[in-house]
Amino acid sequence: MSIYSEKYDVIVAGGGPSGVGAAVAAARNGAKVLLIEKYGFLGGMATAAAVPAFCPYTDGEKVIIKGIGLEVLEAMKKESNYDSPIKDKKELIKRMYDWIPIDTEALKRVLDNIVLDSGTNILFHTVATDVVSEDGNIKAIVVENKEGKNEIRCKYIIDCTGDADIVVKAGGEHEYGDEEGLVQAVTLCYRISNINMERLIEYFKTSGDTGNLTKAVERARLNNEFNFKEKHVAGFSIQNDGVAGLNFGHVYEVNPLKAEDMTRAEVESRRNIPAMIDFLRKYVPGLENAVLVSSGPMVGVRETRRIIGDYRLTARDYFDRVEYEDSIARYAYPIDVHPSKTRDVIYKDENDQYVTSRYKPGESYTIPYRTLLPKGLKNIIVAGRPISADRAMHGSFRVMPACFATGEAAGTAVAICSKEGIELRDIEIKKLQEQLKKQGAYLG
Questions:
Q1: Could you write out the three-class secondary structure of 65-118?
Q2: Among 150, 158, 159, which residue's Cα sits nearest to residue 132?
Q3: Residue 11: beta bridge partners?
Q4: d(Cα 338, Cα 346) in Å, to the nearest integer?
Q5: Chain centroid to CA 260: how far?
Q6: Where does the record place a coiled coil (predicted)?
Q7: How far apart are CA 395 and CA 387, in angstroms?
Q8: pLDDT at 131 over 60
Q9: Buried b or exposed e, range 406-415, using 16+ CB within 10 angstroms
Q10: What is residue 232's DSSP assignment?
Q11: If we measure between CA atoms, which residue out of 184, 188, 186, 185 comes closest to residue 273?
Q12: Which of 123, 250, 379, 426 lies at a C-alpha separation of 20 to 30 Å from 263?
């Protein structure tokens, strides 16, 4: 039977970390699931944008992103033959679970296997372009690919597009960016090879520089040889012997929902890479002979829409470490909001919110179930970066580990509701929480 003639319990739109978490959780809990993805692979920003490393999975003391997200991380590490030479227990925990380099090709295979093994159906090279809805209930989703347009029927939708595309198509309310209508800068990540690892590691040990290459940038600026308008410089991650990935270079005042803006960002980013590599060769020992291997298929996007949900998380919730009774995930990443335009760029970050908002080891905040539910819509739930929050709070949970967690919660909730024949708002929260714990999720 054709995919288009089936009726699914749930359709997941978007195959990034939130979509993977949602699809796998729903399928493992007995739902009939279809996952739609516009590329020919899963992973979202980790693969489509070649982001070089996962943000932290721990709160500085213990792993707090568990369940499907942790399963993916461990499988990728095994596939990549990842190992850590650090022996100290506390440091080892961080080293094994925080800022882990992403092996893009290994991750693609791992995600294929985990999703397909769960029983989820995947439809690549397909975009969800519209919905068929009635009184806040979505009856079908409209998809488009080389075969043309088709409607696929479903009971529930999980919007994991990263941009709340399905919520908008269904008439849901949302916010976008800051008060000027601007969002965080975008970045084209890339990989370099031909690195002298001994010289590079010795430089890191003796210079006091970090993976952000802060001191190298400062020296280049003093010599008027660093002309990029950067907030804090490079995210530098050693991915393999002689190979590193860089999250390095911002393009400002880009609306990622506009093809014209994204085109400008892609072209400008690629144009800047040779000069960045010249800087690396001159100012970072061990990179004298570095060469470009590849850049991401697309620029990395940090921010677009945020839904208006049943509850709106705020920076006050972050700083108060609020414990919600309907918590479905925990996280502890700082508030990380990159500038939207060049006039906001600062070179010293001692007073930057990313630094001042850091939690003490062992602290974390909760993400309530209500933030996943768009106001006015009945059978759609959202996971990933567009969940309901203010812009500062979004700066913390927008990253991939948290997206895995909210995705798993959304998929589990939908599967329970499908079995019981109830609406998403009628779910018994304790039942959802208990099921998440059984799956390995950490709720504190």
A1: CCHHHHHHHHHHHHHCCCCCCCCCHHHHHHHHHCCCECCHHHHHHHHHHHHHHC
A2: 150
A3: 34, 157
A4: 10
A5: 23
A6: none
A7: 12
A8: yes
A9: bbbbbbbbbb
A10: S
A11: 188
A12: 123
Measured in whole angstroms, the distance separating CA 6 from the mean position of its chain's CA atoms is 30
Report yes or no: 21 and 385 within 8 Å, Cβ to Cβ. Answer: no
Tens digits of residue pLDDT in 351-376:
578 888 999 999 999 999 999 999 99
Q: Is CATH 3.40.50.150 what the domain over 3-178+303-337+364-438 is classified as, yes or no?
A: no
Summarised one tens digit per residue, pLDDT across range 68-120 is 999 999 999 999 877 766 666 666 667 789 999 999 999 999 999 999 999 99
> 0.85 cut: is pTM over it?
yes
Spans of all domains in the chain: 3-178+303-337+364-438, 190-295
User: In whole angstroms, what separates CA 180 from the centre of its chain?
Assistant: 24
Q: Which two tokens stand for residue 119?
A: 């029983």
179 CB-contact burial (10 Å; exposed 0-12 / middle 13-18 / buried 19+): exposed
d(Cα 189, Cα 251) in Å, to the nearest integer? Answer: 12
Q: Helix, strand or coil for residue 359?
A: coil
Which token pair is 355? Answer: 């630094």
What letters, b where the CB count within 10 A reaches 16 and e where it falls short, cover 36-68? bbbbebbbbbbbbbbbbbbbbbbbbeebbbbbb
